Amino acid sequence: MAGNWLLPAETTTSGRPVLRPGEVESSLQPSVDLVNEENPNLPSFKSGLLILTTYRILWLPNPDSTPSPSTSAAVAVPLGAVTHIFQSKKSIKGMFASPRVRFQVSVTTEGRVQERGSKSMVITLVFRGKSDPDSFVVKFWEAYRGRAWEGSVSASAEGVEGPAFLGDGGGSSSSDTGLALKMPVVGVSGILRKEQEMWESTDKSLQDAFQDLNALMNKAKDMVMLAEKMRQKLLSGSNSQVNATNDEEMGSKEEMQDWLLSVGIVSPVTKESAGALYHQQLSRQLADFVKTPLERAGGIMNLIDIYCLFNRARGTELISPDDLLRACSLWEKFNVPVMLKKFESGVMVIQNKSHSDEEVFSRIRSLVQKPDALQIGVSATDAARTLGIAPAMAKEHLLAAESKGFLCRDVSPDGFRFYINIFQDIDPNDEYLVKEYGVYDSWIRAAIASR
Predict the structure, then answer these.
(1) C-alpha torsion angle, residues 320, 321, 324, 330 (rounded to 10)
(2) Phi, psi at residue 312, to the nearest 5°?
(3) Which among 233, 409, 446, 448 is least surrounded, fewest beta carbons within 10 Å?
């Protein structure tokens, strides 16, 4: 393969990168070329989406363009393979050219990027369009120096050392407080000394607080990683055990999946990291997120329920209803298996594309033609049991079937009940003629049998 000098990167069905446990996105830049200027024989990756994470540099092809077959897949450069980041030089010539960021990586003898390789090469990132190379370089240095990919042990050690810059007067403070006899607070010098002691005490409290906060954040990060692994294991186990007969065991697995689903998204898309690509990437992440809830809800869910679930999973990175609606509206441009639908009543839902109206109407028609339904009709609760969805969504489907002429509605103090539309089988020229077939005949037989 021509592009095997870089590592392949896995993506979701919506085009989002599949992140490793604990990996977090730092910066997203559109229209970036990834090239090797030293060896022009190697294929270049043109005008793609560049994603910087705490573990890797990811390059994803632009879904709107038509890349060559050799560069149609996503690729990755592990930050562990980076050995040097070159400082960009300012020149008159560079003012009229696209900004470039160069960094050196280790490679194998065959020229494939790899950590601790025996050789090295220089990779160039060419930023075009509305990219922000300056902010990318800053976050690139932060991710490279953070070395989060080396494991939780080194990360926790760095977390302890991190807040050490907050104050350097702790030693003098401890020595002062250890004296048996202190100088009285007299004059301006005494007031200044008292203020200094207060600031030193505050600095020490802040150091302790930040150390506790870092430890808590590391522990929360580990818990989210563990929950994600458990959720994936449960999902794979449920797929391989579809024919299991132990209802109690399957029920406990479903409860566990619901609990793990509420733990949170490890790397939520934010405006700070995505910039101008915020709504586009939010739309793709939302499409990946809703797949599991939709499968559990029968293929359709109210937009309000999705909003609550998605915000709960994002933790403190909450989104507004307008952001959610805009993200859902972008699904028409992406090849994702979900869609936004609005009923005539104004209720908005998210549903799988496989959840077609024709299939739903067919199941409703079979339900209302049962002998009991021909006599007393069906309610939204009855339809919800058959369709496997919430009663509110079932009612919307019944109203839609009524608008298509399949059903008739009866409103009483007990609520809505829906019946099969038998007017279509009645001959307007001879309305008393009952045919020996059709829905009208079935309704007559059911009415006679109930007497």
Answers:
(1) -120
(2) -65, -35
(3) 448
Distance CA 196, CA 168 (A): 12
Look-up of token digits 């008393």: 432
- Cβ within 8 Å of residue 220, ≥6 positions away: none
Residues across the chain = 451
pLDDT tens, position by position, 148-195: 888 743 444 444 343 333 333 334 433 343 333 344 444 555 666 677
- Using CA atoms, how far residue 3 sits from 6, 59, 78, 278, 348, in Å, is 7, 12, 16, 29, 44
Burial of 14 (0-12, 13-18, 19+ CB in 10 A): buried
Left, alpha or beta for 405 (phi > 0: left; psi -120 to 50: alpha)? left
Q: Where are the alpha helices (DSSP H) in 162-246?
A: 170-177, 187-240
Distance CA(200)–CA(169), nearest Å, equals 6
- Which contacts of 116-121 are long-range, i.e. CB under 8 A and separated by 24 or more positions? 117/81, 120/83, 121/36, 121/38, 121/39
Tell me 378's DSSP state. B
Rounded distance between C-alpha atoms, residue 178 and residue 170, angstroms: 12
Inter-CA distances, 377 with 35, 70, 271, 406, 428, Å = 67, 60, 51, 13, 24
- Is the CB of residue 313 less than 8 Å from the CB of residue 261? yes
pTM of the shown model: 0.65
Angle between helices 152-161 and 187-240 (to 10 degrees): 160
Distances (CA, A) of 59 to 6, 27, 125, 382: 10, 12, 10, 50
Helix (H, G, I), strand (E, B) or coil at 41: coil
Residue 399 has which token pair?
């109203």
Query: Please, what's the b/e burial string for 301-311 (b: 16 or more CB within 10 A of its CB; e: otherwise)?
Result: bbbebbbebbb
Cβ proximity of 99 and 127 under 8 Å: yes
Q: How distant is the alpha carbon of residue 168 from its chain centre?
A: 42
Contact 201, 177 (CB under 8 A): no
Identity of the residue numbered 114:
Q
Place of tokens 């909450």: 318
Which tokens hold the place of 15? Answer: 């085009």
Q: What are 222-235's pLDDT values in tens digits?
A: 666 666 666 566 55
Residue 361 and residue 401 in contact, taking contact as beta carbons nearer than 8 Å: yes
Instruction: Give the distance from CA 232 to its chain's centroid.
Output: 15
Find the farthest-apart pair of alpha carbons in the chain and give their distance in angstroms, rounded: 115
